[in-house]
Amino acid sequence: MSPAGVGGARVRIEGVHKAFALDGRSTPALVDINLEVQAGELLCLLGPSGCGKSTLLNIVAGFLPPTRGRVLVDATPITGPGPERGVVFQEYVLFPWLTVAQNVEFGPRLAGVEAARCREIAARYLDMVGLREHATKFPVQLSGGMKQRVAIARALANNPSIVLMDEPFGALDAQTREVMQEELSRIQRVEHKTIVFVTHSIREAVYLADRLVVLTSAPGRIKEMFTIKLGEARDRFAPEFTRYESEITRVVKEEVAKVRE
User: Fold this and answer.
1) Rounded to whole angstroms, how far apart are CA atoms 218 and 31?
2) Is-contact 19 188, C-beta < 8 A?
3) Going by C-beta distance under 8 Å and a sequence separation of 6 or more, which residues neighbour residue 18?
4) Mean pLDDT value across residues 49-67
5) Which phi and psi angles does 55 have, rounded to 5°?
6) How confident is the model at residue 212 (pLDDT cuts 50, 70, 90)?
7) Residues linked to residue 28 through DSSP beta bridges, in sequence order
8) Which range in 5-19, 176-190, 202-216 is most confidently predicted, on average pLDDT?
């Protein structure tokens, strides 16, 4: 929940199509996606299962090439993964043989940052996610929510200007998920990163997003965009919050109904 223009990067998606070969045929997953993500903005992608949310995120990450169209970061077309884009997945993808601190230090060490500075970076981001006292533990000793905090700290330790998050709280229980949403909101107010966040949860999207994009059922197209004007301190039970949730639920349900037809 940061004002656009604070951060140092922006994403522009121009005419992106993506098709996959299935049973000898080309099957479209995304059609004509045109979208700008402003610097410092937290943008959520919503839509029915299979609408291409994760596919679009993977294209922005550089893990998948578009079939047609292009993605630009700061006016430069991307050709693959890059250090300016950090990714947080639903699965924690931590190195089990490394401690919490070593997991967070991994990216800076790989980039050639000196050891003392790596330790400082790890301490800063573990402080930020409330895990500094767990620095010497191994991932197996952590709860799911703690592991995801480590994954977020590790992504931030590389100092990306853009953070791409693919349902990062989807595997967590409801209470932990709300805590993690609050944590991410707090971190965003401090770091002012540009964040693209994929979720199935309308409530989560309304709580986190500056702007929210609803994709149609497959193949995914942009159906509707919402600017969430609720400020930083968001109350999930406020009438304004509920109005956004109700309207977006109606739009998403229209697309879910098409999947069932």
Assistant:
1) 9
2) no
3) 28, 29, 30, 52, 55, 56, 59, 64, 66, 67
4) 95
5) -60, -45
6) very high
7) 19
8) 202-216
Please write the tens of the pLDDT for every residue from 121-146: 999 999 988 899 999 999 999 998 89
The two three-digit tokens of residue 249, written as one number: 């639920």
Query: ω before 96 within 30° of 0 (cis)?
Result: no
Distance (Å, whole) CA 11 – CA 213: 14
Name the residue type at position 129.
V
Tokens of 9: 């990067």
Q: Would you state the structure tokens that stand for residue 156, as one six-digit string?
A: 């931030």
Q: What are phi and psi of 101, to 5 degrees?
A: -60, -40
- Beta strands (DSSP E) in the chain are 11-22, 25-37, 42-46, 68-73, 76-77, 85-88, 162-166, 194-198, 211-215, 222-227
Q: Number of C-alpha atoms within 13 angstroms, CB side, residue 171?
A: 13
Bridge partners (DSSP) of residue 21 are 26
Six-digit token string for 39: 């610097």
Query: What is the pTM (predicted TM-score) of this model?
Result: 0.91
Going from the C-alpha of 207 to that of each of 167, 244, 250, the distances in angstroms are 14, 10, 17
Q: List, in order, residues 6 or more apart from 20 with CB less than 8 Å away.
A: 26, 27, 29
DSSP secondary structure string for all residues of 145-211: HHHHHHHHHHHHHT--SEEEEESTTTTS-HHHHHHHHHHHHHHHHHH--EEEEE-S-HHHHHHH-SE
Amino acid 150: pLDDT: 93
111, pLDDT greater than 50: yes
Residue with tokens 């533990």: 137
DSSP state letter for 216? P
